[in-house]
Amino acid sequence: MLAGIGYAVWSRLPGDTGSIGAGSSATTTGTTGGASPAPATRASQDSSGDPCAPAAADGIPAQPHEAQPLPDPAGARELLASLVVAPRSGGDSYCRGRFGPDSWPDLDRNGCSTRQDVLVRQAATLTTRRIAAHDRTCDEAVAGTWVDPYTAETLTFTNLKDSAQAAQLQIDHVVPLYNAWVSGARDWTDSQRVVFANDLASPELRAVGGHVNFAKDRSGPESWVPVAARQCDYARAFVAVKAHYRLTVTSAERDALARLLGTCS
User: Are 40 and 189 in contact (CB under 8 A)?
Assistant: First the structure.
């Protein structure tokens, strides 16, 4: 049962929903950003007794923490033009577990999970506490405000250790994991997929409203777009991730991204 909950938390719902430990200290701060993306080298898929068992994060070298800036519109158009156009393939073999363990790992080795790093980075206002249930290794986000990057809606939470509130603030993969799989990630090793799914350096991870995350789901830009004011930012991020990881795009995906980049001022 716990493993099942952990998997749901990793893939769609926020993690770390335990109670706030007694005697925790609190701080209020703003957001920070940061560094260089992890390399993306293609390789064959790891073998396993269960082909869909969650891949482990053990043994993966420490990954970058600081976020790289988005390419400007002209740079994004150049990156888009460099992407290989190909039909999606391998969807019938897609396995969510091959992108990581049942809970968000800590690949940058700063004591905080990927989810916590994204929440702290993206917060407009933030209250953190060291949670006893998690060994007091991380200043975890427990309250604050976030601006949804797809809707521009301000999201306010008073206690993210309450599961009902935590479910309303989720971590989205800009390039959905299924999209990555069918555009090249099916041929990577498990370790490469885990790095991709937890990449804090490239613009792959964003804190969004839970309802927005479910609405976006596996969709790419050919079938889902954010509000008009956020389309340029979304397209620049999507193209940057696809280019960094040498993922292919379909012709419909390429055309949609070109239209969205056309909204950039």
Answer: no
**Where are any strands of DSSP class E within the chain?**
26-29, 125-130, 139-147, 154-157, 169-173, 205-209
Q: pLDDT (tens digit, 9 = 90+) per residue, 173-190?
A: 999 999 999 999 999 999
Q: Which residue has the tokens 């309802």?
A: 211
| Spatial contact of 102 and 7, defined as CB atoms under 8 Å apart | yes
Residue with tokens 């937890």: 198
Can you tell me the distance from the alpha carbon of 103 to that of 14, in angstroms, rounded to the nearest whole number?
9
pLDDT in tens, 133-156: 667 889 999 999 999 999 999 999
Domain ranges of the chain: 2-261
Q: Which residue has 């990577």 as its token pair?
A: 188
CA-nearest of 209, 238, 68, 74 to 150 is: 209
Q: Bridge-partner residues for 209, per DSSP?
A: 169
- Return the exposure string of 224-258: e unless at least 16 CB atoms fall within 10 Å of the residue's CB, then b: bbbeeebbbbbbbbbbbbbbbbebbbbeebbebbb
The whole-angstrom separation of Cα 217 and Cα 227 is 16
d(CA 72, CA 148): 21
Q: Dihedral angle at the C-alpha atoms of 146, 79, 184, 86, nearest 10 degrees?
A: 120
